[in-house]
Amino acid sequence: MVSHSVKAAEGIKDIAAEVGKPNQPIVAVGGCEDGSLGIDLDKVEFAIEEADNDDGVILFVDLGSAIICADMIRGNSHFTEKNVHIADAPILEGAVIAAIEASLGSDVKKILDVAAKVVQIHKI
User: Fold this and answer.
1) What is the largest CA-CA distance in the chain?
2) Is pLDDT at 81 greater than 70 in this prediction?
3) Are 2 and 66 in contact (CB under 8 A)?
């Protein structure tokens, strides 16, 4: 989870972890070094390293600059080798369905496809 708010990222992580399988790598990162709202590129890179288990890493992002940050990281040759993806999905709903799909043993492509479909789910 990459959010401008560490509290938001951690809350979404907690929900996703609840529906995923135990020890599934789900990492939350958000805010700036001083605790204010924002995105810290170094913190996001560290989170990717923490989450990487050689199967690929999916980033769920909240706002525009988080998307830009994620794109910059994907362009870094070190992270290109790590199979880093940005989910085209709402951060909360996408992360939850991705955790469920990953717990079923699906590969990264399938997880991304399923997460992207949550935009079709209407709330009313």
Assistant:
1) 43
2) no
3) yes
